[in-house]
Amino acid sequence: MSLRNKFRVTVENRKKIGGYMFTLPFVIGFILFFLYPFIQSVIYSFSSIEFSRTGYTLSNVGFNNYHYSIFVNTQFREDFIETMIAMLTQLPMILAFSFFAAVILNQKFKGRGIARVIFFLPVIYSAGVVLRMETNDIITQMLEANQDSFMFSGEALRALLVQTRFMPEQVIYFILAAVDSIPDIIRSSGIQILIFLAGLQSISPSVYEAAKVEGASGWESFWLITFPMISPLIITNTIYTVVDSLIAANNPLVLLIREMTFSGNRFGVGAAMATMYFASIALILAIIYKLVNKHVFYRE
Predict the structure, then answer these.
(1) I need a labelling partner for 228 at 20 to 30 A (CA). Which of 8, 12, 154, 210 fits?
(2) Do the beta carbons of residue 253 and residue 79 sit within 8 Å?
(3) Is 232 within 8 Å of 298 (Cβ atoms)?
(4) At 59, is the secondary structure helix, strand, or coil?
(5) How far apart are the first and last CA of the chain?
């Protein structure tokens, strides 16, 4: 066997190496910047921290910080349930809107470049600094404070629709909650639109031409070609949306953990809350991946 054949890399191994190289920056970043702080945070969650002039001392308190977070501080449970409900409510709407927007932006029309820029603006708008400027804006705070007094928003519209009784009250609440979250949905869809748009542009036009020759309609081409080919990106966008929603700067649970840790001077309790929140997110992602991955079509 010649030396060249001995070290020849097959196409399959080349793909595997490409995959490892693609994930290598994340692995390095995880080991260097995340693993040690995470382990340290878990240790803090089982400890009571006392600061002194020479540093700090740790005292093992077992599961007391976890017991306090779950059974004593009820705010953690309330914010956790509200955060999960909000995430589960907005997740299908964000995916549907971003996919719809990507399909529209993938069409050929005049001003397509400008339209794509406009649809990407929510990404800049949702950046941490801009979001903090918005929340600190006096006019925004006044509008939010007086939102319920407007006739077509808040409690006034909700009471009007409930009195009409043309549909169940729970349905009305769900629809109004969806309408109220439209700005958040648009603001949170920028990256997902780009991912879907990249997936749509990766589908070869020859596939659609062959389907058209076979007599397939546009509706059939969408469900038999576009949707299966784009399905791997659905799970990508689902995981991204869940993570982006649960770690947002204005997330009430994140704010509670930050307040408990730095303002309340209860580092152990804050670390216990953060550890439980992290474990919950990991569990949710694993369940979502398990459920969605069964219906994903992967091209060989």
Answers:
(1) 12
(2) yes
(3) yes
(4) strand
(5) 31
What's the pLDDT tens digit per position in 190-237?
888 889 988 998 888 898 899 889 888 888 888 888 888 888 899 999
Tokens 């648009």 label which residue?
A: 186
Handedness of CA 239, 241, 244, 248 (dihedral sign): negative
Closest CA to 153 of 182, 126, 127, 119: 182
* Residue 281 to residue 285: CA distance in whole angstroms: 6
Residue linked to tokens 């081409």: 221
231 within 8 A of 297, measured Cβ to Cβ: yes
Q: What angle do CA 192, 198, 202 make, to 5 degrees?
A: 145
CB 120 within 8 A of CB 194: yes
The answer to whether the CB of 99 falls within 8 A of the CB of 254 is no
